[in-house]
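Morning F.,

Quick status update on the modeling queue. The single chain you submitted on Monday has been processed. Sequence for confirmation:
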Amino acid sequence: MAWSAGPMRWLASKGRMRRRGLVLLASSVVAGQLSRVAESPSDRVALAANNDPVLAGNTVNATLPTQINGSGSATFVATNAGGIGVAGYSASQTGTLGQSSSGVGVFGTTTDASGVFGGSVNAPGVSGFSTNNVGVQGSSNVSNGVLGVTGSNVGVFGDATGGGTGTVGRSDSGFGVFGQSRTTIAVFARSTNAVGLFAQTSNPGSYAGQFEGSVLVNGSFSATGIKSAVVPGKNGQLVRFYCTESTEAWFEDFGEARLNNGSVTVALDSDFMATVRVEGYQVYLTPYGGSNGLFVANRTATTFDVVEQGGGTSSIAFGYRIVARRKDVESVRLPAVDRPQVPSAPTPKPGIEQQDLPKPPSAPGQPAIPDIRTR
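C-alpha coordinates below.
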Protein backbone atom coordinates (compact mmCIF):
# COMPACT_ATOMS: atom_id res chain seq x y z
CA MET A 1 0.00 0.00 0.00
CA ALA A 2 1.59 3.29 -1.08
CA TRP A 3 1.37 6.34 1.18
CA SER A 4 -1.05 9.10 0.15
CA ALA A 5 -0.56 12.86 0.39
CA GLY A 6 -1.83 12.73 3.98
CA PRO A 7 0.53 10.20 5.58
CA MET A 8 0.29 11.69 9.06
CA ARG A 9 -3.50 11.29 9.24
CA TRP A 10 -3.21 7.73 7.94
CA LEU A 11 -0.68 6.82 10.58
CA ALA A 12 -2.80 8.33 13.35
CA SER A 13 -5.92 6.43 12.25
CA LYS A 14 -4.03 3.14 12.13
CA GLY A 15 -2.38 3.64 15.51
CA ARG A 16 1.04 3.20 13.91
CA MET A 17 2.65 6.47 15.04
CA ARG A 18 5.24 4.99 17.38
CA ARG A 19 8.40 6.87 18.29
CA ARG A 20 10.68 4.33 16.64
CA GLY A 21 12.03 5.63 13.35
CA LEU A 22 14.96 7.26 11.60
CA VAL A 23 15.10 11.00 10.94
CA LEU A 24 13.92 11.74 7.40
CA LEU A 25 13.27 15.10 5.78
CA ALA A 26 9.67 16.19 5.60
CA SER A 27 10.07 16.79 1.88
CA SER A 28 10.54 13.05 1.31
CA VAL A 29 7.32 12.28 3.21
CA VAL A 30 5.19 14.88 1.40
CA ALA A 31 6.51 13.81 -1.97
CA GLY A 32 5.17 10.32 -1.36
CA GLN A 33 8.53 8.62 -1.60
CA LEU A 34 7.89 6.36 1.41
CA SER A 35 6.10 3.02 1.12
CA ARG A 36 5.16 0.14 3.36
CA VAL A 37 6.74 -3.30 3.46
CA ALA A 38 6.75 -4.97 0.07
CA GLU A 39 7.47 -8.51 -0.94
CA SER A 40 11.02 -7.82 -2.17
CA PRO A 41 13.79 -6.29 -0.03
CA SER A 42 14.41 -3.63 -2.67
CA ASP A 43 10.98 -2.12 -1.96
CA ARG A 44 11.85 -1.40 1.69
CA VAL A 45 12.42 2.26 1.13
CA ALA A 46 10.37 3.69 3.99
CA LEU A 47 10.65 1.27 6.91
CA ALA A 48 13.02 1.07 9.86
CA ALA A 49 14.91 -2.07 10.76
CA ASN A 50 12.02 -3.16 13.01
CA ASN A 51 9.49 -2.78 10.12
CA ASP A 52 7.97 0.38 11.62
CA PRO A 53 7.47 3.45 9.44
CA VAL A 54 10.34 5.94 9.41
CA LEU A 55 9.10 9.00 11.31
CA ALA A 56 10.85 12.31 11.91
CA GLY A 57 11.97 12.64 15.54
CA ASN A 58 11.56 8.95 16.40
CA THR A 59 14.28 6.54 17.58
CA VAL A 60 14.96 3.04 16.28
CA ASN A 61 16.49 0.40 18.55
CA ALA A 62 17.25 -2.54 16.27
CA THR A 63 20.18 -4.72 15.24
CA LEU A 64 19.24 -4.80 11.57
CA PRO A 65 20.24 -1.89 9.30
CA THR A 66 17.64 0.66 8.22
CA GLN A 67 17.91 1.18 4.47
CA ILE A 68 16.49 4.05 2.46
CA ASN A 69 16.66 3.57 -1.30
CA GLY A 70 16.19 6.14 -3.99
CA SER A 71 17.16 7.08 -7.53
CA GLY A 72 17.87 10.21 -9.53
CA SER A 73 18.30 12.80 -6.78
CA ALA A 74 19.59 12.71 -3.22
CA THR A 75 18.08 9.84 -1.19
CA PHE A 76 18.64 11.39 2.22
CA VAL A 77 19.32 15.04 3.03
CA ALA A 78 19.82 16.47 6.53
CA THR A 79 20.21 20.23 6.92
CA ASN A 80 20.62 22.19 10.15
CA ALA A 81 20.89 25.99 10.23
CA GLY A 82 22.47 26.16 13.68
CA GLY A 83 23.96 22.74 14.46
CA ILE A 84 25.33 19.54 12.95
CA GLY A 85 23.76 18.32 9.71
CA VAL A 86 24.62 14.63 10.14
CA ALA A 87 26.41 13.08 13.14
CA GLY A 88 27.69 9.52 13.17
CA TYR A 89 29.01 7.73 16.26
CA SER A 90 30.46 4.29 16.77
CA ALA A 91 32.22 2.58 19.67
CA SER A 92 34.35 0.25 17.53
CA GLN A 93 33.55 0.79 13.84
CA THR A 94 33.34 3.73 11.43
CA GLY A 95 31.20 6.59 12.73
CA THR A 96 30.03 7.74 9.31
CA LEU A 97 30.89 5.89 6.10
CA GLY A 98 30.27 7.38 2.70
CA GLN A 99 30.92 5.29 -0.40
CA SER A 100 30.42 6.07 -4.05
CA SER A 101 31.44 4.54 -7.37
CA SER A 102 31.73 7.83 -9.26
CA GLY A 103 30.40 10.72 -7.15
CA VAL A 104 30.30 12.09 -3.62
CA GLY A 105 30.20 9.56 -0.79
CA VAL A 106 28.98 11.93 1.93
CA PHE A 107 27.74 15.50 1.50
CA GLY A 108 26.73 17.65 4.46
CA THR A 109 26.08 21.35 4.86
CA THR A 110 25.20 23.72 7.67
CA THR A 111 25.26 27.46 8.27
CA ASP A 112 27.14 27.82 11.57
CA ALA A 113 28.53 24.39 12.55
CA SER A 114 29.96 21.22 11.03
CA GLY A 115 28.46 20.13 7.73
CA VAL A 116 29.43 16.51 8.39
CA PHE A 117 30.70 15.27 11.75
CA GLY A 118 31.80 11.76 12.58
CA GLY A 119 32.97 10.53 15.96
CA SER A 120 34.39 7.17 16.95
CA VAL A 121 36.27 5.67 19.91
CA ASN A 122 38.43 3.01 18.20
CA ALA A 123 37.98 3.55 14.46
CA PRO A 124 38.02 6.45 11.97
CA GLY A 125 35.62 9.24 12.84
CA VAL A 126 34.91 9.88 9.16
CA SER A 127 35.86 7.48 6.36
CA GLY A 128 35.42 8.22 2.68
CA PHE A 129 35.91 5.83 -0.23
CA SER A 130 35.58 6.25 -3.96
CA THR A 131 36.46 3.96 -6.85
CA ASN A 132 37.15 6.58 -9.51
CA ASN A 133 37.35 9.87 -7.65
CA VAL A 134 38.47 11.52 -4.42
CA GLY A 135 37.78 9.55 -1.23
CA VAL A 136 37.49 12.62 1.02
CA GLN A 137 37.53 16.19 -0.27
CA GLY A 138 37.23 19.56 1.43
CA SER A 139 36.74 22.94 -0.25
CA SER A 140 36.33 26.44 1.12
CA ASN A 141 36.19 29.92 -0.37
CA VAL A 142 37.68 31.82 2.58
CA SER A 143 38.89 29.23 5.13
CA ASN A 144 40.63 25.85 5.33
CA GLY A 145 39.67 23.26 2.75
CA VAL A 146 40.65 20.41 5.07
CA LEU A 147 41.64 20.86 8.72
CA GLY A 148 43.17 18.08 10.77
CA VAL A 149 43.48 18.58 14.54
CA THR A 150 44.93 16.16 17.07
CA GLY A 151 45.96 16.31 20.70
CA SER A 152 48.95 13.96 20.60
CA ASN A 153 49.14 12.33 17.17
CA VAL A 154 49.23 13.32 13.48
CA GLY A 155 46.88 16.10 12.39
CA VAL A 156 46.82 15.09 8.71
CA PHE A 157 48.38 11.83 7.51
CA GLY A 158 48.76 10.75 3.89
CA ASP A 159 49.57 7.11 3.11
CA ALA A 160 50.37 5.75 -0.35
CA THR A 161 51.75 2.26 0.21
CA GLY A 162 50.39 1.14 -3.14
CA GLY A 163 52.78 3.33 -5.13
CA GLY A 164 51.07 6.72 -5.28
CA THR A 165 51.78 9.98 -3.50
CA GLY A 166 51.04 10.27 0.21
CA THR A 167 50.25 13.99 0.30
CA VAL A 168 50.10 16.58 -2.50
CA GLY A 169 49.71 20.32 -1.98
CA ARG A 170 48.88 22.63 -4.89
CA SER A 171 48.27 26.37 -5.00
CA ASP A 172 48.13 29.08 -7.66
CA SER A 173 48.80 32.02 -5.36
CA GLY A 174 49.29 30.75 -1.78
CA PHE A 175 51.06 27.95 0.05
CA GLY A 176 50.92 24.49 -1.48
CA VAL A 177 51.69 22.88 1.87
CA PHE A 178 51.94 24.81 5.15
CA GLY A 179 53.13 23.36 8.44
CA GLN A 180 53.13 25.19 11.76
CA SER A 181 54.15 24.09 15.23
CA ARG A 182 54.91 25.82 18.53
CA THR A 183 56.97 23.16 20.31
CA THR A 184 58.16 20.60 17.75
CA ILE A 185 58.87 20.11 14.03
CA ALA A 186 56.43 21.94 11.75
CA VAL A 187 57.07 19.72 8.69
CA PHE A 188 58.66 16.27 8.91
CA ALA A 189 59.76 14.27 5.87
CA ARG A 190 61.35 10.82 5.98
CA SER A 191 62.17 8.15 3.42
CA THR A 192 63.68 4.67 3.78
CA ASN A 193 65.30 4.25 0.37
CA ALA A 194 64.82 7.57 -1.47
CA VAL A 195 64.86 11.33 -0.96
CA GLY A 196 63.25 12.44 2.29
CA LEU A 197 62.29 15.91 1.06
CA PHE A 198 62.41 17.17 -2.53
CA ALA A 199 61.81 20.75 -3.66
CA GLN A 200 61.96 22.06 -7.23
CA THR A 201 61.36 25.28 -9.13
CA SER A 202 61.23 25.85 -12.88
CA ASN A 203 62.18 29.53 -12.54
CA PRO A 204 65.99 29.99 -12.69
CA GLY A 205 65.64 33.29 -10.85
CA SER A 206 63.84 31.72 -7.91
CA TYR A 207 64.79 29.24 -5.17
CA ALA A 208 63.78 25.63 -4.77
CA GLY A 209 64.02 26.12 -0.99
CA GLN A 210 64.17 29.11 1.33
CA PHE A 211 64.84 29.21 5.07
CA GLU A 212 64.30 32.21 7.32
CA GLY A 213 66.52 31.26 10.26
CA SER A 214 69.33 28.86 11.10
CA VAL A 215 69.67 25.59 9.18
CA LEU A 216 71.11 22.38 10.65
CA VAL A 217 72.34 19.51 8.47
CA ASN A 218 73.08 16.34 10.43
CA GLY A 219 75.07 14.60 7.72
CA SER A 220 76.90 15.47 4.54
CA PHE A 221 75.95 18.50 2.46
CA SER A 222 76.40 18.33 -1.30
CA ALA A 223 75.86 20.97 -3.97
CA THR A 224 76.45 20.86 -7.72
CA GLY A 225 76.55 24.66 -7.82
CA ILE A 226 78.42 27.22 -5.76
CA LYS A 227 78.25 27.61 -1.98
CA SER A 228 78.42 31.16 -0.74
CA ALA A 229 77.62 33.70 1.95
CA VAL A 230 75.43 36.71 1.17
CA VAL A 231 76.25 39.74 3.31
CA PRO A 232 75.56 43.49 3.24
CA GLY A 233 78.23 45.36 1.27
CA LYS A 234 78.72 48.96 0.23
CA ASN A 235 75.65 51.13 0.78
CA GLY A 236 73.83 48.11 2.22
CA GLN A 237 73.79 46.25 -1.10
CA LEU A 238 73.96 42.48 -0.61
CA VAL A 239 77.06 40.85 -2.10
CA ARG A 240 78.15 37.24 -2.46
CA PHE A 241 81.27 35.63 -0.97
CA TYR A 242 82.24 32.28 -2.43
CA CYS A 243 83.37 29.30 -0.35
CA THR A 244 86.87 27.89 -0.85
CA GLU A 245 86.69 24.21 -1.81
CA SER A 246 89.29 21.53 -1.16
CA THR A 247 90.12 18.05 -2.42
CA GLU A 248 89.71 16.69 1.13
CA ALA A 249 87.89 17.70 4.31
CA TRP A 250 90.14 20.20 6.11
CA PHE A 251 89.76 22.64 9.01
CA GLU A 252 91.94 25.73 9.37
CA ASP A 253 92.93 28.22 12.04
CA PHE A 254 94.72 31.59 11.99
CA GLY A 255 96.85 33.62 14.37
CA GLU A 256 99.77 36.01 14.92
CA ALA A 257 103.03 35.80 16.88
CA ARG A 258 106.41 37.62 17.15
CA LEU A 259 110.00 36.44 16.92
CA ASN A 260 112.25 36.87 19.95
CA ASN A 261 115.88 37.18 18.85
CA GLY A 262 115.16 35.22 15.67
CA SER A 263 112.90 32.39 16.97
CA VAL A 264 109.71 31.61 18.88
CA THR A 265 107.61 28.62 19.94
CA VAL A 266 103.91 29.00 19.09
CA ALA A 267 101.31 27.06 21.09
CA LEU A 268 98.50 25.47 19.09
CA ASP A 269 94.93 26.19 20.18
CA SER A 270 93.78 23.10 22.10
CA ASP A 271 90.12 23.56 21.12
CA PHE A 272 91.05 23.57 17.45
CA MET A 273 93.45 20.63 17.72
CA ALA A 274 90.75 18.53 19.40
CA THR A 275 88.77 18.58 16.13
CA VAL A 276 91.55 17.64 13.67
CA ARG A 277 94.12 14.95 13.01
CA VAL A 278 97.50 15.94 14.44
CA GLU A 279 99.57 14.10 11.85
CA GLY A 280 100.30 16.05 8.70
CA TYR A 281 98.96 19.47 9.66
CA GLN A 282 100.31 22.37 7.62
CA VAL A 283 101.62 25.80 8.76
CA TYR A 284 101.87 28.81 6.42
CA LEU A 285 103.82 31.90 7.52
CA THR A 286 103.58 35.58 6.52
CA PRO A 287 106.30 37.91 7.96
CA TYR A 288 105.24 41.47 8.79
CA GLY A 289 108.66 43.07 8.39
CA GLY A 290 112.10 42.70 6.88
CA SER A 291 113.97 39.47 7.61
CA ASN A 292 116.14 36.78 6.10
CA GLY A 293 113.02 34.65 5.73
CA LEU A 294 111.08 32.43 8.16
CA PHE A 295 110.59 28.69 8.35
CA VAL A 296 108.87 26.12 10.62
CA ALA A 297 111.57 24.23 12.46
CA ASN A 298 109.49 21.77 14.44
CA ARG A 299 105.88 20.55 14.62
CA THR A 300 104.37 18.71 17.61
CA ALA A 301 100.83 17.92 18.75
CA THR A 302 100.75 21.11 20.86
CA THR A 303 103.33 23.57 19.42
CA PHE A 304 105.42 24.53 16.40
CA ASP A 305 108.69 26.52 16.21
CA VAL A 306 109.33 29.43 13.86
CA VAL A 307 112.96 30.39 13.11
CA GLU A 308 114.53 33.14 10.99
CA GLN A 309 116.75 31.83 8.22
CA GLY A 310 120.51 32.41 8.08
CA GLY A 311 120.84 32.71 11.86
CA GLY A 312 118.88 35.97 11.89
CA THR A 313 118.00 37.69 15.14
CA SER A 314 114.93 39.66 14.10
CA SER A 315 111.97 40.34 16.41
CA ILE A 316 109.36 40.94 13.73
CA ALA A 317 105.71 39.94 13.94
CA PHE A 318 104.26 37.35 11.59
CA GLY A 319 100.96 35.71 10.80
CA TYR A 320 100.32 32.00 10.49
CA ARG A 321 97.65 29.77 8.98
CA ILE A 322 97.22 26.17 10.15
CA VAL A 323 95.39 23.58 8.03
CA ALA A 324 94.57 20.06 9.29
CA ARG A 325 92.33 17.18 8.24
CA ARG A 326 89.02 16.77 10.08
CA LYS A 327 89.01 14.15 12.80
CA ASP A 328 85.29 13.28 12.78
CA VAL A 329 85.01 12.13 9.15
CA GLU A 330 86.99 9.97 6.74
CA SER A 331 87.24 11.95 3.53
CA VAL A 332 88.38 10.40 0.26
CA ARG A 333 90.34 12.58 -2.13
CA LEU A 334 88.18 13.59 -5.10
CA PRO A 335 85.67 10.72 -4.84
CA ALA A 336 83.34 10.03 -7.78
CA VAL A 337 79.73 11.14 -7.20
CA ASP A 338 76.61 10.08 -9.08
CA ARG A 339 74.13 12.85 -9.77
CA PRO A 340 70.81 12.06 -8.01
CA GLN A 341 67.78 11.39 -10.17
CA VAL A 342 65.10 14.08 -10.22
CA PRO A 343 61.73 12.52 -9.28
CA SER A 344 58.73 13.32 -11.42
CA ALA A 345 56.10 15.58 -9.89
CA PRO A 346 52.89 13.82 -8.81
CA THR A 347 49.91 14.52 -11.04
CA PRO A 348 46.29 13.96 -9.92
CA LYS A 349 44.04 11.97 -12.23
CA PRO A 350 42.49 14.04 -15.06
CA GLY A 351 39.17 15.64 -14.27
CA ILE A 352 39.45 15.72 -10.50
CA GLU A 353 40.59 19.33 -10.23
CA GLN A 354 37.80 20.83 -12.32
CA GLN A 355 34.98 18.45 -11.52
CA ASP A 356 31.79 19.92 -10.02
CA LEU A 357 30.43 18.36 -6.88
CA PRO A 358 26.75 17.43 -7.14
CA LYS A 359 24.24 19.77 -5.52
CA PRO A 360 21.72 17.97 -3.27
CA PRO A 361 18.17 19.32 -3.21
CA SER A 362 17.19 21.91 -0.60
CA ALA A 363 15.02 20.90 2.34
CA PRO A 364 11.72 22.82 2.80
CA GLY A 365 12.17 25.84 5.05
CA GLN A 366 15.96 25.53 5.03
CA PRO A 367 18.55 27.66 3.20
CA ALA A 368 19.78 26.38 -0.13
CA ILE A 369 22.88 24.21 -0.09
CA PRO A 370 25.74 26.21 -1.64
CA ASP A 371 27.49 25.02 -4.77
CA ILE A 372 31.05 23.86 -3.99
CA ARG A 373 33.67 23.53 -6.67
CA THR A 374 37.20 22.19 -6.59
CA ARG A 375 40.03 24.39 -7.71
